[in-house]
Amino acid sequence: MPKSKARLLILITWIAVIATGVLSFAVILTHNSDRAFSRAAAYAVYALIALTALLSFLYSARCPRTAKALCFEGCGRGLPAACALCCVGMLYDFVHQCYNCYDYFENVGYVEKNYIIPIAISGFFALLSAGYFIAVFLTVKQTGVDYRNFTAFHFAPLLWAFFKIFTLITGIFDVSKGSQDICNFILLVALIAYFMLFALASEKKAGAASKGFIASSVFAAAMCFTVAVPRMLAAAIGLMGNLENTTVSSPTYFVLGLFIVFVLRENRRCERNGFIGE
After folding, report:
1. Which helix (H) or strand (E) holds 186?
2. Are the C-beta atoms of residues 120 and 101 closer than 8 Å to each other?
3. Which residues contact 189 (CB under 8 A, 6 or more apart)?
4. Who contacts 18 (Cβ-Cβ below 8 Å, separation ≥6)?
5. Which of 139, 179, 201, 267 is the most exposed place for a label (fewest CB within 10 A)?
6. DSSP characters for 195-246?
């Protein structure tokens, strides 16, 4: 894609981001004063978020390919500084979660484990993530350390984000009673990640599947079956009334799970037969 088109897509994306931020601020300001405007602005925010996702995909799918996705050799000062700031940010989040735990224990008479445990775990992974970004910083600075050698370390930021999501939904749902909705929420997050990676893998054509693509395939398929099969069985035996927020999406989730499994199966077959991507 010509550089001018790439720059235009990035420019439009940033305009959409700025507009989303302005409207989100307007929603906050008018939350308790102008319900009609607040509702309309909220819908506009959702539309702009969808537009931003589309623009992000168009840019990633059409921009010129580079030889290496992660190129640290000869980089400027910006990337090391960003790594250092990420480390500081994760340390801040760790301290913040520790304070949240302390404040919670000090101000409640009964400790709700379903609420406090995700906060504590997200704090733990924030601390691990700080170490992860230190390793990335040392790699970028060409010190001889290579964070890519620590495979399990890569999951620290991912698990931090996951438990931040879980902390959020425990404030929306009763964890002891709303497991169906929580599983549905996790499934949709997993599908978003999978289909983004699937779209990028599709653009590569002969490219090898990334580890992220394979991991997201396994998890997304597992969540599809976890959510769909019990709900379909309950509907089949006449227990629709026992389903939370009853929808007809379960068959869709089930066939999506099958699709993901067979795509992954073909990927593994190609690897066994020696058809390795570029």
Report:
1. helix 179-204
2. yes
3. 165
4. none
5. 179
6. HHHHHHHHHHSSPPPPHHHHHHHHHHHHHHHHHHHHHHHHHHTT-GGGSTT-
Residue 204 burial by Cβ neighbours in a 10 Å radius (0-12, 13-18, 19+)? middle
In angstroms, the CA 175 to CA 61 distance is: 39
Range in 79-83, 149-153, 173-177 the model is least confident about: 173-177
185-217 pLDDT, tens per residue? Answer: 888 888 888 887 877 776 665 556 677 777 888
What number of CA atoms fall less than 13 Å from residue 217's CA on the CB side? 21
CB 126 within 8 A of CB 93: yes
The end-to-end CA distance of the chain, in Å, is 21
Phi, psi dihedral angles at 73 (to 5 degrees) = -70, 125
Distance CA 208, CA 275 (A): 9
- With beta carbons less than 8 A apart as the criterion, state whether 245 and 231 touch: no
Q: What mean pLDDT value characterizes the chain?
A: 79
Give the mean model confidence (pLDDT) for residues 219-239: 80
Please give the Cα distance from 267 to 170 (Å, whole number). 37
- Taking the C-alpha atoms of residue 99 and residue 117, their distance in angstroms, rounded to an integer, is 14
Read off φ and ψ for residue 97, nearest 5 degrees.
-70, -35
Residues 152, 215, 251: CA angle, nearest 5 degrees: 145
Q: The pTM is what?
A: 0.73
pLDDT of residue 91: 93
Q: Which residues contact 118 (CB under 8 A, 6 or more apart)?
A: 163, 166, 167, 170
Longest Cα separation, the chain: 64
Name the amino acid, one letter, at 31: H
Question: Could you give phi then psi for residue 74, rounded to 5 degrees?
Answer: 70, 20
d(CA 148, CA 104): 37
